[in-house]
Amino acid sequence: MLQLQIKSDTSDIEMVQNLVRSAIESEIKHLKRSLDKTNKILKEFETKYQISSEFFLENWTSEDLTGGDDEYISWAGEIKIKRKLTNSLQKLEAIEYVVQYLPN
Q1: What is the pLDDT of residues 2-31, one digit of tens each?
Q2: Beta carbons of 4 and 100 less than 8 angstroms apart
Q3: 99: Cβ–Cβ under 8 A, 6 or more apart, which residues?
Q4: Global pTM?
Q5: Could you tell me the CA-to-CA distances from 20 to 6, 27, 31, 101 in Å, in that order?
Q6: How far apart are CA 83 and CA 89, in angstroms?
């Protein structure tokens, strides 16, 4: 679990919390759009070669692809991007917001 703790000695802490939550929700939407785009590209490779991305990464080399090195780098890069996006998305979606008002 990831906790995001917001502390404030002012009464507008709720506004600050909403602002932070909104920024994080915006980033989550951006990550989801990026992940959709990456998944589409991966699906195109998987359809073209009739194998999963996992199988490709573990068993294939650039010589196995009609596009050679460029295609291999693109496919492997998209797999790496997907992992990074998924990891970031999971972390942001797991945030628990904790607000603490600090009296003057």
Answers
A1: 888 887 777 788 888 889 999 999 999 999
A2: no
A3: 5, 6, 8, 13, 14, 17
A4: 0.84
A5: 9, 11, 17, 16
A6: 10
